[in-house]
Write a structure and sequence with these properties.
The protein is α+β, with helices and mostly antiparallel strands. Helices cover about 25% and strands about 25% of the residues.
Length: about 675
C-alpha cells in the first residue's frame, strides 16, 4: 500500500504574519485547529482523538512562500510586576516594557503547506476529522493574521508535484536542537489545562484588600530544527577536448565567478523573461538598472573550490559549489538548469560545467556530512574593504626611511582589520564567539598564494585582502565564507585539524587564591563524567572516563587506559588528556574520543566547591611551545607529587627519587 501525506494548506488574507519565528510553526497550526473548533463549544471525543493522533506524528515538512521582514512595530505593555508598586494601578506606567513586533511579509497567493506523513494503519475517520477541523481555521498567529485553511490527502507522486510547483522554500525537519515549536504527545492536554487556568488566574488575598496573580501553565511543545532547506550541488570544470578535469588558477577566482554568473543570468533571462528582476536579485544581487535590491539571505552563492587536503595539492580550482538558499524566489531546479552545461573559455580551451559525483573535496571544506569545527583558516583571502591601510609606493621604501610604517601604525591597521572581520562574521550569519584571530598577508599552506595576488581591478584592492586563522568558542559548521567578497569566491575557509586528545580550559574567573589541586581536579573529573552521562543517556560509565573498574576500584592504566585530569596553577587552566597523550604506546579509542568531544562542547562553568565557582573557556594548546607539552632536559613539578611506593630503610629524598624513576 502506498504511503499518504496529510497536507494542510493555510493562506493568510493580508500577506503578513505577526507571530514569532522565521515561519509559522506547526504548533501554531495545531492551536489554530483547536481554536477554530473551540468556537462552537467543548471539544468532542472524536476531535480529541484526532488531535491526539496528530500530536504523536513526526514533525511535518513545511512549504512556505518567499518571506521578507517588514517594518518593526514597538509597543509598550505593562509587565506582571505591579506588586513592586504596592498594587497601585495608577503607577502602571512605571512598569511598562518595550515589545518589538516585526511581521513577515509575503505573497498572499502562496500558501503555507504543512505535510504530515500518514501511516497505513491510520483510520480514515481520524484523517477525515482533521480535514473537517481545517475548515474552521480563522486566523494563524495574532488577531490581525486572518487566515483560512484546507486539507488534502496526497500520494507520494502528488506530493512531489506539489513541491515542484510550489513558489518558495521547502523546510524539512533535521537533526539537532532547533527553535521551531511542533506538537508532541501531551500538547493537547497542556493547552486544555492552560485554557482552564484562565478562569482562576486572579485571587483575593487573605485579608481581602489585594489581589494575587498566578501564571498559566506553559504549553508543551517539541523543539525541532528546520535548517536543511538549502540546495547544494557541486559542478566539475571539464576540458571539452580531453574530458578530464580542467584547472583554473585560484588567484583568478573572482573572474571565474563573474564569468559563470553572467552566462547563467543570460541563459535564465532568455528562458524566463518574466522573472528577470528575480534572476538579477538572486544571482547578481542587484536590479537590472544597477540598484541594490533583495535580501542577502536569498542570494545564490557560487563557490570555486581550490583542491586541498594534501600537503602537495596545487590549490587549483577544478570544482564549483552552487548553494541555493531556501529563500531564493526562483525554483532550485530552474537555477541549477542555468548552471548545467555552461561553457567557459580559458586560454583558448573550452571548459564545460558538468554536475559532479560525490567527492572528498566537500569534506575538506567542512561541507557534506563533516562535523563542525572550532578552528578555521582561509584558503582564499578575506576582502575587508572597510579596513583602511596606508599605501606605500614600492620605490619610495628605497629612498627614505620616513615613509616606512612603524610598529604602532601596523598595530593600528591590524586592529582595524580585526574589527572589520568581526563585522564580516556577523554579516555572514556566524553567531559563535571568536576566541582568537590571526591576520596576515601570507597563506597558511605551503602551496597557497599571498593575499595580494587575489586582487581584481578596482573591485577588491590588494590593500583590503587578508588571510586569517580563526578560533571560535563553539563549533561552526561549514562552509565558512566571510567578507565583502563572499559572493565572488573570496573569504573561503577550511577547518583545521589540530592535535587530538588534549582538551584545555582557561579559568577566566571564580578561582580562589590558594586552590587545592587534587580537590579541584576531582571536581573536574566529576563534571566531565556527568556530561558524558548526559551524552550516553546512561548512569554507568566505561572505565575510559571514570578510571574505575566495574567493582568501583581504581583501574590499572596499562590494562584499562583512561583519562587524565590536570590543573596547571601557573597558567590557570584545566586539562583533560586522553590516554594516548600520556602514553604513546596506547592507541586512541575513536568512539570514546567522539563521546568526550561531544560532552566537552560548550563546557563553560565548573562548580568546584571550596575552590570556587569557575567560569572557564575552551582554548587550544600549541604542543610545540607549551611548557607542559614541549621537550626539555629539566622538569619541575607545579603541583605536589604523591608517592606511589614508599621505600623502606632509606631517606625521603632517595625514596621519592626511586619512585619518580620507576614512574618514568
Amino acid at each position: 500500500m502506498m504511503s499518504k501525506t496529510l497536507a494542510i494548506s493555510v493562506r493568510l488574507h493580508e500577506g503578513w504574519y505577526h507571530g514569532a519565528g522565521s515561519i509559522p510553526s506547526p504548533a501554531r497550526v495545531f492551536q489554530a485547529l483547536i481554536a477554530g473548533r473551540g468556537l462552537s463549544g467543548p471539544l468532542s471525543t472524536d476531535t480529541i482523538e484526532a488531535l491526539e493522533w496528530l500530536e504523536r506524528q513526526a514533525p511535518p515538512i513545511v512549504a512556505a512562500p518567499v518571506t521578507r521582514g517588514g517594518q518593526s512595530i514597538a509597543t509598550f505593555v505593562p509587565n506582571n510586576d505591579l506588586d513592586a508598586k504596592q498594587g497601585d494601578f495608577r503607577r502602571v506606567g512605571e512598569i511598562r516594557a518595550k515589545k518589538t513586533i516585526r511581521p513577515l511579509l509575503f505573497d498572499d497567493e502562496v500558501p503555507f503547506v504543512f505535510c504530515w506523513s500518514v501511516q497505513d494503519d491510520c483510520h480514515d475517520s481520524i484523517v477525515q476529522r482533521i480535514c473537517e477541523l481545517t475548515d474552521g481555521v480563522f486566523q494563524l498567529g495574532r488577531a490581525v493574521d486572518a487566515a483560512w485553511a484546507w486539507s488534502e490527502l496526497l500520494s507520494d507522486d502528488e506530493l512531489t508535484e506539489k513541491f515542484r510547483t510550489h513558489r518558495g522554500p521547502i523546510f524539512r525537519p533535521s537533526t539537532g536542537q532547533g527553535n521551531i515549536e511542533c506538537p508532541t504527545a501531551g500538547s493537547l492536554s497542556s493547552l486544555r489545562r492552560r485554557y482552564a487556568d484562565m478562569s482562576n488566574r486572579y485571587a483575593v488575598t487573605l485579608d481581602g484588600t489585594g489581589q494575587t496573580f498566578r501564571q498559566q501553565a506553559k504549553p508543551k511543545w517539541r523543539m525541532v530544527s528546520y535548517n536543511n532547506s538549502q540546495t547544494s550541488v557541486c559542478f566539475d570544470l571539464v576540458d571539452r577536448e580531453s574530458t578530464s578535469l580542467a584547472n583554473w588558477p585560484a588567484t583568478r577566482t573572482v573572474e571565474l565567478v563573474a564569468m559563470i554568473r553572467d552566462s547563467v543570468v543570460a541563459r535564465l533571462v532568455k528562458a524566463l523573461p518574466e522573472f528577470e528582476l528575480e534572476i538579477n536579485q538572486t544571482l547578481v544581487g542587484r536590479k537590472p538598472n544597477g540598484e541594490n535590491s533583495g535580501p542577502v539571505s536569498a542570494r545564490t552563492r557560487i563557490l570555486p573550490l581550490p583542491s586541498i587536503g594534501h600537503e602537495h595539492s596545487d590549490e587549483q580550482i577544478r570544482r564549483v559549489l552552487i548553494q541555493i538558499p531556501g529563500d531564493c524566489p526562483l525554483r532550485a531546479e530552474d537555477v541549477l538548469w542555468g548552471f548545467s552545461g555552461q561553457s567557459l573559455t580559458l586560454q583558448g580551451r573550452t571548459i564545460d560545467l558538468l554536475q559532479s559525483q560525490p567527492n572528498r573535496q566537500l569534506e575538506h571544506y567542512g561541507i557534506s556530512d563533516s562535523k563542525p569545527s572550532r578552528h578555521w583558516q582561509s584558503v582564499t583571502p578575506i576582502a575587508l574593504t572597510s579596513a583602511t591601510r596606508r599605501r606605500i609606493e614600492p620605490d619610495l621604501t628605497k629612498r627614505s626611511e620616513a615613509v616606512k610604517k612603524g610598529a604602532s601604525e601596523r598595530r593600528f591597521e591590524h586592529e582595524g582589520a580585526t574589527q572589520a572581520l568581526l563585522q564580516a562574521l556577523r554579516h555572514a550569519g556566524v553567531t559563535a564567539k571568536l576566541s582568537s584571530v590571526r591576520l596576515q598577508r601570507e597563506p597558511f599552506s605551503n602551496r597557497g598564494q599571498r593575499a595580494d595576488a587575489f586582487q581584481s581591478g578596482v573591485r577588491f584592492s590588494k590593500h583590503s585582502l587578508w588571510h586569517a586563522q580563526l578560533e571560535f568558542e563553539s563549533s561552526v559548521a561549514g562552509p565558512l565564507v566571510v567578507g565583502d567578497g563572499r559572493f565572488m569566491g573570496l573569504g573561503l575557509f577550511e577547518p583545521v585539524d589540530l592535535p587530538k586528545g588534549i582538551f584545555a580550559f582557561s579559568i577566566e574567573s571564580g578561582l580562589v587564591k590558594a586552590p587545592d589541586p587534587i580537590r579541584l581536579v576531582k571536581s573536574l573529573r566529576r563534571a566531565v563524567m556527568a556530561r558524558v552521562q548526559n551524552v550516553l543517556g546512561s548512569s554507568s560509565l566505561p572505565t575510559f572516563f571514570s578510571g574505575h573498574s566495574s567493582l568501583n576500584t581504581p583501574a590499572d592504566s596499562k590494562l584499562h587506559p583512561h583519562l587524565t585530569y590536570l590543573f596547571d596553577p601557573n597558567q590557570k587552566r584545566l586539562l583533560v588528556l586522553q590516554p594516548e597523550i600520556v602514553d604513546a604506546t596506547i592507541k586512541s579509542h575513536q568512539r570514546h574520543s567522539k563521546i568526550l568531544e561531544l560532552a566537552l562542547d560548550v563546557f563553560s562553568q565548573l562548580l568546584a566547591g571550596p575552590d570556587g565557582s569557575l567560569q572557564i573557556r575552551a582554548i587550544e594548546i600549541d604542543v610545540q611551545g607549551d611548557p607542559i607539552f614541549s621537550r626539555s632536559n629539566v622538569w619541575e613539578s607545579v603541583t605536589p607529587y604523591s608517592v606511589n611506593r614508599h621505600s623502606k630503610k632509606t631517606t625521603a629524598i632517595v625514596s621519592i627519587s626511586i619512585d619518580v624513576i620507576q614512574e618514568c
